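Lab manual, section 2.4: Encoding a predicted structure.

Procedure: take the sequence of the chain (358 residues), apply the prediction step described in section 2.3, and record the output as structure tokens. A sample record is shown.
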Amino acid sequence: MILDTMLDRNPYTDAHTEKNSLLLERLNELTDHYYNDCSEYRRFIDVLHNGRTKYDSLDDIPFLPVKIFKQMELKCVPDEDIFKTMTSSGTTGQQVSKIFLDRQTAGMQQKVLTRIVSEYTGNSRMPMIILDCPSVLKNRNMFSARGAGILGFSLFGSKKIYAFTDDMELNIDEIRQFLEKYSGQTIFLFGFTYMIWQYFYKKLKDIGEYLPLENGVMIHGGGWKKLINEAVSKEEFKSGLNEVCGIKSVHDYYGMVEQTGCIYMECECGHLHASVFSDVIIRDMKDFSVCENGKRGAVQVLSSLPWSYPGHSILTEDMGCVLGEDDCPCGRKGKYIEIYGRMKNAEVRGCSDTFEKK
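Recorded output:
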């Protein structure tokens, strides 16, 4: 019932008090559900929180370290109700997270992703260019983070093509024909940051090809670590794409397979926004206290969606800060944040980074 109320609202119109009241009620509901239906989570709460399942503040909701999903198989529903397993990105030899979804959780993830992204793209489905290769979606029952991203964002596409072959060669002739066929329409493009730069931008630049995507909308995520290593800033990324295809509407997003659906989209001002369905808390790694706005620390993400696994409050291995709340110039309410990348010595596991490593 609480989640239904949240779904009836615009993702970015609730200010601090109203949003936090709804989200806290939902997270307390989930904490109690996990405690009753996941023995491993119950032990965690009993040992570290004296069995407490109701909290008065979002800051107090117990969090799990993201690495625990690599070490344990955590579920809150019977095995027969699991119909899809998501895995995090991981290089060869690394353990990967396994996230178990029932139909209810997967359905809510799709609904919320649609609500959030539609605020940036509109409600109509568009011809779509997937800036990846088709082999990513081999197994429809077990998805990597990369495959999950493609599948989720494909909801916004009507007709779809893949930009790359399985050898990551650019399908330039097919893309040209696609753009001619849907000339005058808004084209939706989705892919992972480093792969877009390496295999789309650089290829077009090398061959001197210009693709007419002035009316396109691009959403991309992950892989900034490698671009930073190449000294490519967000501004250079956008200007480079504008140079080879004229695209102006380019939006980064922050998200992870452990909390699919609740993504943090980049607005026109370059800020990543938490919607009514999620929130971010920044923790000081010395004592896990909450950092004030503007101070860098470890990123804790809160999500109202996970029912089939205990994933509503996760301490990530990313560093970031809260820039402000309810006062972004774009007009969207809620916290807006900046992500600086992985903690020092944290495993490389981004979608684009993983592809390059392999």
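Check your result against the sample. Residues 348-358 have pLDDT under 50 and may be disordered.
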